Amino acid sequence: MTPRPGRRSAALLAGLGLAAGTLLVAPAAPASAAPENDSAAAVAGGEWLVGQLNADGLLENAEFQSVQYGLTIDAALSLAEFEGGDFAAQLAETTGSLTTPENVEEYTTFDYEFGGERFAGTSAGATGKLLAFAESRGLDTTDVGGVDLQQQMEDLVRPSGRIADGDETGNNDDFANVISQTWAVRGLAEAGSQAAGRAEEFLLTQQCDDGYFPEGFGSGAGRSCDDGTDEPSIDTTAFAVLNLSATRPPAGSDAQAVIDQAADWLRSQQTPNGAIGGDNTNSTGLAGWALATVGADGAAQRAAVRVAAVQVAGFAQCEGALVPDDVGAIALGRAQFDRDVVTGIDLPAKDDQWRTATAQALPVLRSLPARSESGTLERATSGRFVKAGRPTQLRVRGLAAGQKDCVVGGGGGAMVVGSGKVSLDVPGGTANRTYRLAGVGGSVTVRALGAKNLTIARKDVVARGAKQTVTVRGLAPKEKVSVEFRNRQVGAGTASQQGTFRTTFKVFGEKGRAPLVAKGQFPGARNGNNAFRVR
How confident is the model at residue 78, as a pLDDT? Predict the structure, then answer.
């Protein structure tokens, strides 16, 4: 094998969380087990992922120019989950590339020098993940690229059942953790290995009393985690649910009890907006996928809606620099999505965040309800008119939960996810302004009133106690209007179809020049002043 600085960390982080970029594992249940939907969002994400693969069907880190084997497995397992997209040929190509002798060695072993010392051995996390992937693809795991992966994994299982990295030099640290253990459990179980039982038993001891799994291994025959030293991990707990479920434990078994308790804990971590683990689509997507696997469809759907909110849907008016090249991509979170709408995906520095988030969060989108093909748009506020030059609120109805659309008009756009309200600017000037849903149709036209100096016609001189007739012009038909004399309202109503309003009142007050004020629908922008002499 060829020494390569950094291979140690790249290989051994294969079983870690977000920082490693290797969070997914395919559940054993077939795709049809998930809630039925048209998978449009999922297929779009899959197509974007396919576009990120190199000529060999692998993902590369553009910044460091290195192949990302673990993330490629994540992407491949995600592509295998969805109906409605023809990814079979791509999966075959990617599987072939991942299992060449050179790549199997590159991914599962390490050999490098650092600080004048040599480090060499076998990565338990990478071996377990590749073993599980090879089993999912129906390969002979005793001969993957010339390597007996089953035996290689078995050699990394200690008598206690804990897995550990292989060490050829005596200088190595052990980077295996609980996530690595879940991969090993699944891979060994599906291979029918005699080591699967003790590896599973050790994994079960790593669950805390509250139901979660920490990322790091604990000692002893169990861990209560009550002392606060074992921080809960959304990703590790979700992995435990997914990988243990893949082994199909019988009802009433210890493993099934652990799965149920872990799923209950994941549900307890979900916030009202659907997120599980904060503004992080990796954790939310992974946990939502795990919950869908155990039949917690409501929680899975809420997680899917949260993830879909930061997937690029293809609306140029709302997604700016992310369209058209990035349709289907999933951002790491809302902050990244909003930033990159303006700047675009900054290659190569940020492309791995989008790739990692998409590969890891994509499967939860199977829990989205079927999208609607039509919608309606209406004003969210009452009244006949809106004020030009100011925002107006519109209400969208008829979209499915998690379905994105873009309300366009007034020279701008506003994204909506599911039915709800949006706010859009109204251009200046009096005119009819039309807003529409770019995706499913549906439109509404609002009558905007711009600034206007109203004119007031009146008699020049009126005796005190006599009647004055005032005519206001420059109004829009049906516009509300009021007339004030000496700061007291003396007339109110709506304008005629010709845009005029007339009122008559008895003149009061002292003799001399007296003011008249006319106020339209929006008094601050539409008004007029005049005066006459009282004798």
Answer: 87
